[in-house]
Amino acid sequence: MAASTLLSAWGPLRPGVPGLCRCRQPRGLWAHAWRLPEPAGSGRSVAAVTGPGISGTDRYCLELLRKRDYEGYLCSLLLPAESRSSAFALRAFNVELAQVKDSVSEKTIGLMRMQFWKKTVDDIYCDSPPHQPVAIELWKAVKRHNLTKRWLMKIIDEREKNLDDKAYRNIQELENYAENTQSSLLYLTLEILGIKDLHADHAASHIGKAQGIVTCLRATPYHGSRRRVFLPMDICMLHGVSQEDFLRKSQDKNVRDVVYDMASQAHLHLKHARSFHKSVPVKAFPAFLQTVALEDYLKKIQQVDFDIFHPSLQQKNTLLPLSLYIQSWRKRY
User: Fold this and answer.
1) How far from 151 is each of 90, 110, 145, 148, 210, CA to CA, in Å?
2) How far is CA 72 from the centre of its chain?
3) Distance between CA 45 and CA 101 in Å, rounded?
4) Backbone phi and psi for residue 143, each to the nearest 5 degrees, phi listed first
5) Cβ contacts of residue 187 below 8 Å, gap of 6+?
6) Does 24 score more than 50 pLDDT?
7) Measured between alpha carbons, how far is 268 from 12 in angstroms, rounded to an integer?
8) Per-residue model confidence as pLDDT tens digits over 218-244
9) Cα–Cα distance between 305 and 257 in angstroms, integer?
10) How far is CA 45 from each of CA 30, 31, 257, 275, rounded to the nearest angstrom?
11) How far is CA 91 from the centre of its chain?
């Protein structure tokens, strides 16, 4: 997948190209944006969205998301009130699974934890969840929305396969992983919103794949610090790039071309997802707010000429809460 073949999908990608700057945000929305919580560490974010009647297990999920998946936390806050706690539970479940790989020293221990979650899901559908905060909240969500067990199991199975420290053989393998994890998460979110629509499912599939590719790119500096590289081998081979090039943080053009190809594929998935915009029910749009963060990263990496190790890419976007609120207000994704 050479860079040139994807040029038509994204257009010129070097910094300074007109037409890619953000639109000026409506001033009237600044008055509402302050209500969104601050990043982890502020201490006020959970208090801002929890009431006196919130349960301890619900608060646990909120706090876990705020610390480990801040973007997902913000997106969940903008869901309808009746769907919010279930979305927190679902994303907390995803965080629990996602952090297994980095929190264990041996694959065997990771497999044991995955087996715990498989049994937990089985027990949830038998109305006997274990006394674990995320499990209890997930059980409530399943009961409330009749969530499909297959999607939950797919997330666990795919995370389990991914416990091996191996690079993806090709971009399709990465996309399959993203489909079974990130897209499955979106299918469940749509169920929480009461949406059963083929066009929404198609959009969710593409957004999930874009999320998987962007997550792989964003995590590359972190993985490199631990002497690991997971970028697709076919794209690296196409440009004559070795894993060692990423480990030593090379800024050579061929390394940037690898990043360019992956970013272009993520952008293409976002473009496909938005092609269903007129057919997707408006009620489904809140499930797709993560496109704001995805597009923000893709624009940033373009601005630094696809230098994946540029310090600016590791900085939090302090305007993300406002951008999410505006996108929600506009009813777009």
Assistant:
1) 11, 20, 14, 6, 18
2) 7
3) 28
4) -65, -40
5) 148, 151, 201, 204
6) no
7) 14
8) 999 999 999 999 999 999 999 999 999
9) 10
10) 18, 18, 39, 35
11) 10
